[in-house]
Amino acid sequence: MTDFASLLIADRGQDARTLLPLGKAGLDGWLAGQPEGVRALVAAARFRAKAGEIVILPGDKGEWSAAIGMAEENGPWDLAAVCAKLPAGTYRLKEGAPGAAALGWLLAQHRFDRYRRKPDPASPRILLTREPAAIDGVVRVAQAVALVRDLVDTPPADMGPAELQGAVEAVAKAHGGTVTVTQGDALEQGYPMIHAVGRAAVRARAPRLIELTWGDPAHPRLAIVGKGVCFDSGGLDIKPAAGMLLMKKDMGGAAHALALAGLVMGAGLAVRLHLLIPAVENAIAGDAFRPGDVLTARSGLHVEIGNTDAEGRLVLGDAITHAAEDKPALLIDFATLTGAARVALGPDLPALFANDDALAADLVAAGDAVSDPVWRLPLWKPYRDMLKSDIADINNAGSGGFAGAITAAVFLQEFVPAGLPWVHFDTFAWMPTAKPGRPKGGEALALRAAWEMLKRRFAG
């Protein structure tokens, strides 16, 4: 992984090139005080201080500085496009500290090049900051986002349930966490829906429930659950080829959950952490679970299978049930759960569902504060009727084709005990087109919002 800690360091007067941030509103005033040669240079470069623009300004003895366009939003991506255009070297802003924009500076330099025979050569751009106390926090968040990206971008042949378990074990080892894994007969008996979804791949890619615990048992218990469907063929309700193309990212919820757990442990948050990742491959074989089957969940609920491609909610149901058994103070789950959420909100906005209005408001506010927006959708109780089964307690696939994201969340709510604060993120975990600091591919969406909320709640 990129060594982010070497790219953001305290400003102690080191030699560095100066970056002058300018917004459109301040450009004319700045130009008025510049020599004619500088004005001509800026005009020739067609520099209008738009976000991401850069113009090199010559100095004495071969030195140079740069004027850079800023969005004037004080957001994490304000420096990302500029960073990508600069040569290797050390830089400082002429005035102030980078603040939130330091994150974009770091992430603009992250690369996933595991499968390139000749990776791009390293050209580190180091940023000096006058806020040294903020460095560790920014670096940890950059590492968490990069972890999500790397896990999601990894091809499914190299990111099955066993490899996902290895990723959890690596994070646990770094922070002193404890990992337990349930599979085989114990999984079938204790977590029937997780086993059923993964049993068609049991010989090559055995399903499992991966758990990580950390922290003082006397602290409030925080449960984080992530959907770990390492590849989703759709099962016997097979997806078309176009629908399978991105299904390596169907473990994006697990990647988010693991990254958030790493942030919690890295910051020493005052919680008793319980991370749960049901890791499976939804494959096709003679023993695959079938449409029309009825599964008995860990909770005792009988679930009729209306569609084997609605498998994520099944594995989450058993994991949520287990998480709730330890009576956490808060339960958060992440999942790449429904295409309906993307139809409603597009790729950039994760759908947020919560059974507690104050919790939902805190998350929306936290997301706005760190430029990681989320959008709340309702847990609309009347839509429970869409999940009725003629022979069982509930159907896993809503009828009628409407409100797919909501009916999926309402299904999950069946496994959440009354009174337990719970939030569900239906996130895309993917950037379909590149943006400054965010390449096309795996992406953390709602991770920073959740982390900001947790810091506010539990940092003390």
From TrEMBL:
InterPro entries the UniProt entry points to: Leucine_aapep/pepB, Macro_dom-like, Peptidase_M17_C, Peptidase_M17_N_1
Superkingdom of this protein's organism: Bacteria
Sample GO molecular function, one term: aminopeptidase activity
Domain Cytosol aminopeptidase: 307-314
Keyword annotations of the record: Aminopeptidase, Hydrolase, Manganese, Protease
Family: Belongs to the peptidase M17 family.
Name of the protein described by the UniProt record: Leucyl aminopeptidase family protein
